[in-house]
Design a protein that fits this description.
- This protein is α+β, with helices and mostly antiparallel strands.
- It folds into four domains: 48 residues, no CATH class; 77 residues, no CATH class; 52 residues, no CATH class; 107 residues, Homing Intron 3 (I-Ppo) Encoded Endonuclease, Chain A.
- The strands form six sheets. It has a four-stranded antiparallel sheet.
- Helix 8 crosses helix 9 and helix 11 packs across helix 12.
- It starts with 9 loop residues before the first strand and ends with a helix.
């Protein structure tokens, strides 16, 4: 493999003078000292000055044992050392360190200030931009997790945030927002849907929404009779036997024209003439009690809350 010519190139405080053999270069430090330096030390940024200057630098800034200095060192390594495990995500992706910080930890600390807490580390505001004073801040790991190439950014009302940040601000669940966005809803529609309790998908809605069914109130009254006081349906033909049987959750199910329906939703259709648009809740918590006085329309969230209240009262 042909050896790269580093003559005249600067590596921190080093300037390469000539090849010295054994994979080393004769270099001159800015202080005037001349010594041989391993090629890897120059190229990977492990050596940037002579030993005397390095000792003086430690005496000058006194940062070598501080967390800020270690963070700065980690930044340099993952941006300039191909052997670093994170190099492909930083230096390999074109991320660089500005000239002011590249060889001066004191300048880095002066611009960034002390690390606020152990939960904070350096975050680049523009994830594709450099490590520089105008593009870096201290941020928690949660905040940084939202500022990666994988994070989904959403612009709403002129402001751009991640889906998780919007969810926290608006008081909704991050997963619910992501689910609705993946189904093609706009962000505004997703938030409004969550708050109103509307189902996210047609598949979810089909479990309890029969608004597209061909069964009408007129047809239902032709084949079944409903008693609001007992909550029971009976057949209008023959011996007028009671119809319906409980499912695994205790809700009564009834078949009409070869299709199975939940009895409490049939009650709503029978009494009001139209299918309920939301969930039908059993006020007393008994899924088999389909008396008209025991039913009310609620959103899914209200249904869960009401069910929890009933269970707590009975507990």
């Amino acid at each position: 493999m042909r050896r790269a010519d580093l003559t005249g190139q600067r590596f921190g405080h080093w300037v390469a003078l000539q090849y010295a053999g054994s994979i080393k270069w004769l270099c001159r430090c800015d202080c005037g000292a001349v010594q041989t330096v391993h090629t890897g030390g120059l190229v990977y940024g492990n050596s940037t000055r002579c030993w005397e200057c390095k000792r003086e630098a430690k005496k000058t800034h006194g940062l070598s044992e501080t967390p800020e200095y270690k963070i700065w060192g980690g930044i340099i390594k993952r941006c300039y050392n191909p052997r670093n495990r994170a190099y492909r995500l930083y230096g390999g992706r074109g991320i660089v360190v500005c000239d002011r910080w590249r060889h001066d930890a004191a300048a880095f600390v002066a611009d960034m200030g002390p690390r606020p807490s152990t939960r904070h580390s350096v975050d680049r505001i523009d994830n594709d931009g450099p490590y520089s004073p105008e593009n870096c801040r201290w941020a928690t790991y949660l905040e940084q997790g939202q500022n990666t190439t994988r994070s989904r950014k959403i612009t709403h009302d002129g402001e751009t945030l991640t889906a998780a940040a919007w969810a926290r601000r608006l008081g909704v669940t991050w997963g619910a927002v992501e689910q609705r966005l993946s189904r093609g809803q706009s962000f505004a529609e997703a938030v409004e849907g969550i708050r109103s309790g509307a189902p996210a998908t047609q598949k979810t809605r089909a479990r309890w929404d029969y608004s597209t069914s061909s069964l009408t109130a007129v047809r239902l009254r032709e084949v079944l009779h409903y008693d609001p006081d007992t909550g029971e349906f009976s057949c209008l033909r023959g011996l007028r036997q009671k119809v319906g049987r409980p499912n695994a959750t205790g809700h009564i199910q009834i078949s009409v024209d070869d299709r199975r329906y939940q009895a409490h939703r049939l009650v709503w259709l029978y009494m009001t003439g139209e299918w309920p648009r939301l969930l039908v809740h059993h006020i007393d918590g008994d899924p088999a009690n389909n008396r008209w006085s025991n039913l009310q329309q609620v959103t899914p969230a209200e249904n869960v809350s009401a069910r929890f209240s009933v269970e707590r009262a009975h507990g």
